[in-house]
C-alpha cells in the first residue's frame, strides 16, 4: 500500500504524520509512504533523520488581508493544484492523509478530484483554514478536542473524536503520577519548552525564574530552540548543578516519565504529550497563533483542571514563580492536576488512525 502525507513542516503538523507513518510501517512491512511539503522545505531535515522520503510542491499561504499577495493567490493555488495532481500520478497512493497547513489544501483537493480517499487529522481545538475548507470533501475527519467536531457543512457521522497520535502511545504514563512525585531525597523535575521551534518570551522568563531558585531546588530540562540555545546555556554558567539545556530533545518519552511540571506553549501536540504522561502544566499560549487556537487549546486544559494559563502579555518571572510553587509545594493540587491531565489523554489515537488509513486503502 502507498500512503501520501500532506502537511506543513512545523512540528505541530509534521509530528503526528510521522507517528502515523511509523505506525503504518510497523503494521505492513511493504508499506510505502511519501511526505509532501511546501517548497520552502521546512521539516525536510526531520524527515531525512527519520528516513522518510519527501517531495515538495509550490504553493503559498492563504492571504489574511487584501494585498498584492492576495491578488496573485489564485495563480499560486492553481499551480499548487497542478503540482499536487502530478505528484499523485507519480506516486499513486491508495490513501492521502492531511494533517494541516496550507500545503495540504491543493493536495487534498487533487486527491478528491482523482477519486482517492483522504483523511483529515485536526490537532487543535479550533480547526485550521485548510482543514475547514476541505472538510466537506473528506472521507473521514479525526479531531482531538470535543469542540472541534463541529465542521460547517460536514455530516457529523464523518467526524470522529480520536485524539492526537503522539510518541509513546500506549506506553505513556507507565510510571504512575503518585510514584513520580514520591521520590525521597530527589528534587522535583521541571520541563521548560517553547514548542518545536523554541519561544524567546518563555526562554527569557524561565531563565529569570530558574536563577531566582537555589540550583538544587529542581532538576530541569530546558528545550530552547536553535536560536536561543547559546545565550540560555551561558546564562547558567557557574551553577551547580546546571539545567539540562538543549536546542531540541530527541527522546521526549524518556524525559516525560520523570517530569513533575511542564512550562510550555499550548500547541496541540505538546498538550497531548503532557496529558499522556499525566503532567500538570503552566501554559503560556502563543498569542499570534492562527485563529487563536493555542489560547483555545490552553483554556480547554485549564477548564479540565490540568493546567494553569498565563497570557504572554501578562507573564513575568515573579508570577511564574508563584504558580510553580503553588503547584509543587501542595501535593493535593499537584495530584488533582495530574489526574485531570490523565483524563484528557487518548493513548489509542495512533492505532485507531492507522486502522482507518488501512481500511480506506483496501
From TrEMBL:
Residues 189-348 form the Glycosyl transferase family 28 C-terminal domain. SUPFAM superfamilies: UDP-Glycosyltransferase/glycogen phosphorylase (SSF53756). This is UDP-N-acetylglucosamine--N-acetylmuramyl-(pentapeptide) pyrophosphoryl-undecaprenol N-acetylglucosamine transferase. Residues 165-185 are annotated as: Disordered. Residues 3-142 form the Glycosyltransferase family 28 N-terminal domain. One of its GO terms (biological process) is peptidoglycan biosynthetic process. InterPro entries: GlcNAc_MurG, Glyco_trans_28_C, GlycoTrans_28_N. Keywords: Cell cycle, Cell division, Cell membrane, Cell shape, Cell wall biogenesis/degradation, Glycosyltransferase, Membrane, Peptidoglycan synthesis, Transferase. Cell wall formation. Catalyzes the transfer of a GlcNAc subunit on undecaprenyl-pyrophosphoryl-MurNAc-pentapeptide (lipid intermediate I) to form undecaprenyl-pyrophosphoryl-MurNAc-(pentapeptide)GlcNAc (lipid intermediate II). The keyword Endoplasmic reticulum does not apply. It comes from the Bacteria. GO terms for molecular function: UDP-N-acetyl-D-glucosamine:N-acetylmuramoyl-L-alanyl-D-glutamyl-meso-2,6-diaminopimelyl-D-alanyl-D-alanine-diphosphoundecaprenol 4-beta-N-acetylglucosaminlytransferase activity; undecaprenyldiphospho-muramoylpentapeptide beta-N-acetylglucosaminyltransferase activity.
Amino acid at each position: 500500500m502507498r500512503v501520501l502525507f500532506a502537511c506543513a513542516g512545523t512540528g505541530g503538523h509534521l509530528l503526528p504524520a510521522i507517528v502515523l507513518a511509523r505506525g503504518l510501517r510497523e503494521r505492513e512491512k511493504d508499506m510505502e509512504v511519501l511526505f509532501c511539503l511546501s517548497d520552502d522545505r521546512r521539516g525536510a531535515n526531520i524527515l531525512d533523520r527519520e528516513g522518510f522520503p519527501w517531495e515538495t510542491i509550490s504553493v503559498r499561504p492563504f492571504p489574511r488581508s487584501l494585498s498584492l499577495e492576495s491578488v496573485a493567490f489564485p495563480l499560486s493555488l492553481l499551480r499548487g493544484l497542478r503540482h499536487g495532481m502530478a505528484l499523485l500520478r507519480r506516486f499513486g497512493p491508495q490513501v492521502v492523509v492531511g494533517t494541516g497547513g496550507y500545503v495540504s489544501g491543493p493536495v487534498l483537493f487533487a486527491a478528491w478530484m482523482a477519486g482517492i480517499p483522504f483523511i483529515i487529522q485536526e490537532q487543535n481545538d479550533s480547526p485550521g483554514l485548510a482543514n475547514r475548507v476541505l472538510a466537506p470533501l473528506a472521507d473521514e475527519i479525526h479531531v482531538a478536542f470535543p469542540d472541534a467536531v463541529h465542521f460547517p457543512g460536514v455530516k457529523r457521522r464523518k467526524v470522529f473524536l480520536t485524539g492526537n497520535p503522539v510518541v509513546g502511545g500506549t506506553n505513556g504514563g507507565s510510571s504512575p503520577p503518585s510514584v513520580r512525585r514520591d521520590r525521597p531525597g530527589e528534587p522535583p523535575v521541571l520541563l521548560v519548552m517553547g514548542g518545536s521551534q523554541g519561544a524567546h518570551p518563555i526562554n527569557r522568563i524561565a531563565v529569570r525564574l530558574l536563577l531566582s531558585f537555589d540550583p538544587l531546588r529542581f532538576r530541569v530540562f530546558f528545550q530552547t530552540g536553535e536560536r536561543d540555545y547559546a545565550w540560555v546555556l551561558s546564562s547558567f554558567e557557574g551553577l551547580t548543578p546546571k539545567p539540562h539545556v538543549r536546542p531540541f530533545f530527541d527522546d521526549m518519552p524518556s524525559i516525560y516519565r520523570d517530569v513533575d511540571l511542564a512550562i510550555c506553549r499550548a500547541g496541540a501536540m505538546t498538550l497531548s504529550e503532557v496529558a499522556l504522561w499525566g503532567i500538570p502544566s503552566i501554559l503560556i499560549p502563543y498569542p499570534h497563533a492562527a485563529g487563536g487556537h493555542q489560547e483555545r487549546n490552553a483554556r480547554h486544559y485549564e477548564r479540565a483542571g490540568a493546567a494553569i494559563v498565563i497570557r504572554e502579555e501578562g507573564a513575568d518571572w515573579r508570577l511564574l514563580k508563584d504558580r510553580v510553587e503553588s503547584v509543587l509545594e501542595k501535593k493535593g493540587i499537584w495530584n488533582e492536576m495530574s489526574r485531570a491531565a490523565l483524563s484528557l489523554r487518548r493513548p489509542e489515537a495512533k492505532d485507531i488512525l492507522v486502522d482507518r488509513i488501512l481500511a480506506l486503502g483496501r
